[in-house]
From TrEMBL:
CC per GO annotation: ATP-binding cassette (ABC) transporter complex
Membrane topology: Multi-pass membrane protein
Species the sequence originates in: marine metagenome
InterPro entries the UniProt entry points to: MetI-like (IPR000515), MetI-like_sf (IPR035906)
Signal peptide coordinates: none
Pfam families xref list: BPD_transp_1
Name of the protein: ABC transmembrane type-1 domain-containing protein
Membrane-crossing segments per the record: 7-25, 62-84, 91-110, 116-133, 145-165, 185-214
SUPFAM superfamilies in alphabetical order: MetI-like (SSF161098)
GO molecular function annotation: amine transmembrane transporter activity; carnitine transmembrane transporter activity
Keywords from the named record: Cell membrane, Membrane, Transmembrane, Transmembrane helix, Transport
Annotated localization: Cell membrane; Membrane
Boundaries of every ABC transmembrane type-1 domain copy: 140-289
Amino acid sequence: MEKYKKYINLAYLVIFIGMVVLAYTTSKYRPESVLVLFTDPSWLGDWPKWLDFPLMPFLNKWFDILIVKYGIMFEGINFFLLGLYGKMKNFLVGLPWPLLMISVILLAYVASGRNMGTTIMVAFCVFFLGFLSPRYWDKCIMTTTIVIIGMLLCLVIGIPIGIMMARNKKVRNALLPVLDLMQTIPSFCYLIPGILLFGLGAVPAIFAIFVYAVPPLIRLTDLGIRLVDTEVIEASEAFGASKKQTLWGVQIPLALPNIMQGINQCTMMSLAMVVIASMIGTRGIGDEV
């Protein structure tokens, strides 16, 4: 990688110069002659109007091509996720509310490590939702369904990507800038591509939850796998374990605390996004907020 570094830097420089030239040649505010830039330094005071990269036409054209070429694929994803959302929501709504409440309390008891204080607090909060108004109970089930589906997508896709990053340095170097960008963009911005690709409703909310919440899970899975002691890995290999056996029998069990921390962060970010997603017609507790 080091021997190609100077060529990569040169490519960045060429791209930068190309963007400046394109902005200058396509702008209607450009000076009549390039010599004006050297004789009149007034353009250094404020950002010049001619230095405006025409990105919008390219983005519009790219989205048009994406929707025309792959519209059927997005329709299939939309149909699948919407059907899954409808079936899961109907199943949860059809359950007797005491049974559902007991299931949530038992899950909290097991997940908290049999902590009675946390379990009692969860039980009180769950009961309080229905106690306020019956409509809150139904809306909470809608919100929970969206979060569960979004979390399942994060787990199914995020954990394998994190493992790939830990085991392949090239994959890690390629994905780290993407994850940095995903965590830098404000959460509202993830709703826009979801609306463009899937319309309004629950599916764009699931898409936004996935994009917003999966980076911490990928990062912490990658970190957990890489923090496993090399001596432990060498010992497993010395006993004849294959790479697959080492991964499932050594690395993942030792990395489980980090992975669980990633799941925790993923859950918190999913709950934050699902409330914001009510702005695009997603029904749930976010309507009341």
